[in-house]
Amino acid sequence: MTNDLALPCAHAELIAELPREVMGRIEKTYGGRWIVRDADGGLLLLSPDLTIDERFVIPRYFVESGWFNHDISPDGRFAAFAGERRSACVRVDGSTVWEASHPALGNVDGEDVPACAVFAPGGTELWAFVPVPDDEWDEDSDVTYTAQRQVISLPDGAVIGTSPSFYEGPHKVLIHPDGRHASSDAFDGAGNDGRWTRWDADGRPTTTSRGFGVPLDVHPDAGTWLGNAFGTVQLHDFGPADDDAGRDPRVESSTATFLWAWFLDRVHVIALSEYAPKHMLLDTHTLQPRARIHYPAPHHDADAINLCSAGDGTWVTVTAALDGAAPCIRRWRLGDGIRGGEPE
């Protein structure tokens, strides 16, 4: 097993920052931009240099419900919110484009989990994964275990298609860069069934790849994807497959300490570890550790409460208020090469 603390250092270079208190995870979106909630009930669309392109006021229902998925369209005109019993798409001015009330989606642990709604790459469609009554639907509790994929056209908000889906929550659906495949995962109490699905013109779903982990990210070349199976990062191929497709990964990490991982670029994966060093570089092809990320003083990986990569060689960190310093979002890139020895 690799001694991660003895790994060489990959030095981080600061390229942008935004002093702002935010909540929850920061997420990448189309065009190298970022989506994150602020602490004042807003959903922000940030440009690559971390300036605020748009701010949507989150509808009160979703703020009060506490647990919901969200997304912003590629053109910044619409935001989608999907909670336990309501989903909606709104404009920047707060007016509603589409909304639906629905049963709660139950999971194997007896919890109600949120629905999901994400924008397709072209920005002309919203894909909403809406819970619908099934054979196990409990009328009194209004809980179901099935979600239907609804395709909503924009900007008119009309539902132009419905089809079965494998969405079981709570993880947000990822859409493949080709605009045809969507991720999902299901937990049966023992393990995850991560998969990628595409739909034909008649709405019939086909599984094109499966794994044992929660889908995390798609390679910049769009041929492979990362999953997380109880802390083990796994690399899977896309390719012709059916519902009986093999689920074994091409490779997987040698340790099971990772909370999240993203493709930093074509040759590196950046991973968030449960233990020090918190931020690590893995080799894309082997998922073996290559370096630990060293931040310039006074920054430190332990200060970051959130991390995400754009896949273009840059990543962002989110820090809370520390020692009187304001909360801040920062964007980074790798400095010159990977150097051995202790950080300077």
Q: Keyphrases for this structure?
A:
2% helix; 52% strand; 1 helix; four-stranded antiparallel β-sheet; 344 residues
What does this structure look like?
The protein has 1 helix and 30 strands. It is mainly beta. The strands form 7 sheets. Strands 24-25-26-27-1-30-29-28 form an 8-stranded mixed β-sheet, with no helix packed on it. The longest helix has 6 residues, at about 60-65. It is globular, with a radius of gyration of 20 Å. The two termini are about 25 Å apart. The model has no long low-confidence stretch (mean pLDDT about 90).
In percent terms, what proportion of residues is strand?
over 45%
Q: Average pLDDT across residues?
A: 91
Overall SS class: mainly beta
Our count of helices gives 1
Shape: globular
Measured between the Cα atoms of the first and last residue, the distance is: 26 Å
- What is the helix fraction of residues, given as a range? under 10%
Number of strands: 30
Unreliable sequence segments: none
Give the C-alpha Rg: 20 Å
Main-sheet strand order equals 24-25-26-27-1-30-29-28
Largest sheet: 8 strands, mixed
Summed up:
It is built from one helix and 30 strands. By secondary structure, it is mainly β.
Topology (elements, then pairings):
Blueprint: E1 9-19, E2 22-29, E3 33-38, E4 42-46, E5 52-57, H1 60-65, E6 69-72, E7 78-82, E8 86-91, E9 96-101, E10 104-106, E11 112-113, E12 116-119, E13 125-132, E14 143-144, E15 146-153, E16 159-164, E17 181-187, E18 192-199, E19 205-211, E20 214-218, E21 224-229, E22 232-237, E23 251-252, E24 258-263, E25 268-273, E26 279-283, E27 289-294, E28 304-309, E29 314-319, E30 328-339
Parallel strand pairs: 1-27, 10-14
Antiparallel strand pairs: 1-30, 2-3, 3-4, 4-5, 6-7, 7-8, 8-9, 10-11, 12-13, 13-15, 15-16, 17-18, 18-19, 20-21, 21-22, 22-23, 24-25, 25-26, 26-27, 28-29, 29-30
